[in-house]
Structure formats: structure tokens, C-alpha cells
Amino acid sequence: MLEPLKRLIRKVLKVPAEPEAPFGAPGTVRVFRAARGYFKYKLLSWGLGHVGTVFGIVFFFLVIRPHINFWGAHYLTILEVLGVGAFLAFLPVSFLIIVLDFEYRWYMVTDRSLRIREGLFKVQERTMTFSNIQNVSIRQGPLQRFFGISDLEVRTAGGGSSQAGSGKHSELSDNLHLGYFKGVADAPEIRDTILERLRSLRSAGLGDPDDLPAASATDETTHPASPTAPETSVLAAGQHLLAEAHALKELVNSPSTQHSP
Questions:
Q1: Which of 43, 22, 23, 25 is nearest to 34 (CA)?
Q2: Which residues, other chains included, contact 65 with Cβ-Cβ below 8 Å and sequence gap of 6+?
Q3: Which H or E run contains 251?
Q4: pLDDT tens digits, one per residue of 111-137
Q5: Which of 65, 78, 96, 166 sees the fewest Cβ atoms within 10 Å?
Q6: What is the largest CA-CA distance in the chain?
Q7: How far is the C-alpha of 194 from the C-alpha of 184, rounded, in Å?
Q8: What pLDDT is attached to residue 225?
Q9: In the CATH hierarchy, which fold is given to the domain comprising 2-203?
């Protein structure tokens, strides 16, 4: 029963197949998936939302509906039946959307880059090269800790300062400088994998361009400044003029010049 519905949803939403591996050596591709705890975490949110909807429906029929009496009340009854029927029919569909969102979540890492794909209605695919990565951090809220999952945040150059709190994910979803490995159980392993491959790239000569200005500043502070070429030529010309002035002064003050016939 569920599989035909899943195929129908995939066809209607045109969910793409497994993404291609990002740039890197073929033998270095590693695929990470969201943990089972992430599915339970999303399922809890789904259940609480629908419990709130059921509570609202019951409250309407028990408290508000008995006080609605007018000539067109039978039309309202038809709308009520249609609304409740639509809610009950959408329950399995919304549940399968949660399932497919969990299954069609991809995190790929190679020796040179990483790729993140997520979403059903709005498919987002983000590729980041290790040479641009500036920060890798782990975020975990109390409820995530209960389910044994966490989010790994990857930030590239130009991403600005980090914003605390997992509630910022929706606000930062369109930030091209941010990527999230959401709901993973092995976030420290993924972080160490990325950092190790990042160190390998930099040790091979593909260092962080931000290190270059720092090195230049160190050179300027550890070595005393020397005059540039224009400053040297001006100094030499001044010294030459000073020597000529001294020679002229000695010539004027010499005895032969003062007692000449």
C-alpha cells in the first residue's frame, strides 16, 4: 500500500535520483545519510502538528458549532465533512512525505569537495570545495541530543559570522556559503574526515589564500624596513649637494683665494 503511494509522490514531485559524486578522486567518495533518530525527530514534529489540528477540530465541533444556527447551516455541514475528509486523506500523504524527505537526503564527501542534496518540494543541491571551507562545527539541541543526532555546519569563505541555534537553519537555507549535514549520528566522524582531507590539500600546496596576507604582515614586522629605490636616489642627491656646498665653502675660505693679487 505504501510503496505505490511513494512512487506516485516521487512521480508527481519529480524527485531526482541519487546525485552524482562531487569533484574528486573516484576512490575517495564517501556517502553519509541521516540517522534513524532524525526520522523519529521529524516524525515527532509531524505528530505534534496533527495532534494540534485534531484538537482544533474537536474544539470547533464541541464548543463553537452548537452556537452556529442560520438558514445556510446545512452548507456549513457539507464544508465540515469535506474538510475532515481532506484532513484524513492527507494524513498518509503527509506521513510519506516525511519518509521520502528522510530517504532522499544525500551527503557526499570526496578528497576535494562535498555535496549536499535535500528537499522534495524544493530540491536544494549544494557543492563546496575544500579549498574554500573556513569553518566546520557541530550543533545539537536538547531534543536532538535525546534522539542521538546532531547537525554538522560547513561554512565557506564569504559566509559571515556563525549564528548560534539550530532554529536559524530555515533562515540560512538560501545562504550559498552554508551547508548542513542534518540529523547525522556520526557528526564528529564526518567533521574529522573533512578536516583531514582539508589538511591533506593544504600540505600538498593548496593552502588557504587567507594565510598569505598574514605571512606578509609577519615579514613586515620581523624585518626592519629598508629605503625604496626612489628614497635612495633622493638621499644620494642630497648628500652630493651637501658635499658640493662644503667644497665651495672651503674654496672661498682658502688663503689663496683671500690674498690673490
A1: 43
A2: 80
A3: helix 229-253
A4: 999 999 999 888 899 999 998 999 999
A5: 78
A6: 142
A7: 15
A8: 38
A9: PH-domain like (2.30.29)
